[in-house]
Write a structure and sequence with these properties.
- The protein is α/β, with parallel strands linked by helices.
- The protein has two domains: 176 residues, NAD(P)-binding Rossmann-like Domain (Rossmann fold), CATH 3.40.50.720; 121 residues, Orthogonal Bundle (N-(1-d-carboxylethyl)-l-norvaline Dehydrogenase, domain 2), CATH 1.10.1040.10.
- It is built from twelve helices and ten strands.
- Strands 1, 2, 3, 4, 5, 6, 7, 8, 9 and 10 form a ten-stranded mixed β-sheet that branches.
- α6 packs parallel to α10 and α11 packs across α12.
- The longest helix is centred in the middle third of the chain and has 22 residues.
- The N and C termini lie far apart (43 Å).
- The model has no long low-confidence stretch (mean pLDDT 96).
C-alpha cells in the first residue's frame, strides 16, 4: 500500500489523512470540495483541541480524475448519501487490485462498496473519534481516535497487518477485532441511539442520561436493533448493550456528528441509521416502532428544510 487516497476530507477523513500524510509512509492524496478544498490547497490541514498538528503542503484535488496516482487503498470518509457519487468518481482511477476501507457511518456502505468493487477488494472498518471541522482547513480533535478494521472471516491477512503497521507508523491506534462484523454492529447501535436521539433533539449526549424517558427510549432502540442483528446471525447480548449505552455516560456533553450537522443546517445522515433499521426490520418481519418513528420525524425535517 504505497499510495493512499482519502475520499472525503472532512472531520474524519481530514484527521486520519493528516496523520498518514505526515508520516514517512505511503504517498497520500485527498479529495475535498468547497471551502475545505481551498483551505487545504492554500495552508494544509490544522488539527486543534486535544492534539495540535499542522500538515502542509498536501496533495489535494477536487476530483479523483485530476490525480496522476492509481491508489492502492482508498479510505472513504464521505457522508453516506454521497457514496454512490464517490463510487462513480473512483471507477476510472482505480485498478483491479485497489482496496477500499470505509470509515463511513452505518452498515450499508460496506454492502454498496462490495457490490460496486467486489467483496474481496473491500475491508470492513469504522472508527471511534470525536472531531469537528470548526473552520475550513481546521479540525478540532475532542477525543478517542482508534481505527477498527478486519477481514470478514477473521483471518489476519497480509493486507490487514500491513494496514495496521501503516496506521501505527503514523501515530494512529489500529485495532483488529476477532469479529469485525459484530463490532461494526455495536458501533452502528451506538450511532442509532446517540446520533439519532441527539440529532433530532439538538442536545448533547449527556441529556439522554438526565431524562428517564429518553434513557428508556435509548434501550428500546437497542432492543430493536439487537433483534435485527440476531436475525442476520450476529448475537449482541444485553451486557454488550450496557457497554454501548451506559458506558457512554462518561463522555459527558458530547456533540454527535448528526447534532453538529443539524446545528449547521447540513443534510442529515439519518437514512443510513434508522432508515436502514426500518428496511431490515421489514425484511425480517420484525418490530421497529421507535426507529420507524425517528425515521418519519427525520423525513419530515428533511422535507421542511428545518
Amino acid at each position: 500500500m504505497e499510495q493512499i487516497l482519502i475520499m472525503g476530507s472532512g472531520a474524519v477523513g481530514g484527521y486520519y489523512g493528516a496523520y498518514l500524510a505526515d508520516s514517512d509512509g505511503p504517498e497520500v492524496a485527498f479529495i475535498a470540495r468547497g471551502a475545505q478544498y481551498d483551505a487545504m490547497k492554500k495552508t494544509g490541514l490544522r488539527i486543534t483541541g486535544k492534539e495540535e498538528r499542522t500538515v502542509d503542503p498536501l496533495s489535494v484535488y477536487k476530483d479523483p480524475a485530476l490525480m496522476e496516482m492509481v491508489p492502492d487503498l482508498v479510505i472513504l470518509a464521505v457522508k453516506s448519501h454521497h457514496t454512490e457519487e464517490a463510487i462513480e468518481q473512483l471507477k476510472p482511477v482505480i485498478s483491479k487490485d485497489t482496496c477500499f476501507l470505509s470509515l463511513q457511518n452505518g452498515m450499508e456502505n460496506y454492502e454498496i462498496l462490495s457490490k460496486a468493487f467486489g467483496s474481496r477488494n473491500v475491508i470492513r472498518g469504522f472508527c471511534k473519534i470525536g472531531t469537528e471541522v470548526t473552520s475550513p482547513g481546521v479540525i478540532e480533535y475532542r477525543g478517542q481516535g482508534a481505527l477498527y478494521f478486519g477481514e470478514e472471516n477473521g483471518v489476519l491477512s497480509n493486507r490487514i497487518l500491513q494496514l495496521q503497521k501503516i496506521c501505527e507508523n503514523a501515530g494512529l491506534k489500529a485495532i483488529i477485532p476477532e469479529d469485525i462484523r459484530k463490532e461494526a454492529w455495536k458501533k452502528f447501535i451506538w450511532n442509532c441511539v446517540f446520533n439519532m436521539m441527539t440529532g433530532i433533539s439538538g442536545v448533547t449526549t449527556d441529556y439522554i442520561f438526565k431524562e428517564e424517558e429518553a434513557y428508556t427510549i435509548a434501550w428500546q432502540i437497542f432492543y430493536e436493533i439487537q433483534a435485527i442483528a440476531g436475525a442476520g446471525g450476529v448475537r449482541i447480548s444485553d451486557e454488550e448493550g450496557e457497554d454501548i449505552i451506559d458506558a457512554s455516560e462518561s463522555l459527558g456533553a458530547f456533540l454527535t456528528s448528526t447534532a453538529q450537522d443539524r446545528r449547521k443546517g447540513k443534510r442529515l445522515e439519518y437514512d443510513t441509521f434508522c432508515g436502514y433499521v426500518v428496511r431490515k426490520a421489514d425484511h425480517y418481519e420484525l418490530e421497529a416502532s421507535i426507529n420507524r418513528s425517528l425515521y418519519a420525524q427525520y423525513r419530515m425535517i428533511d422535507m421542511s428544510g428545518c
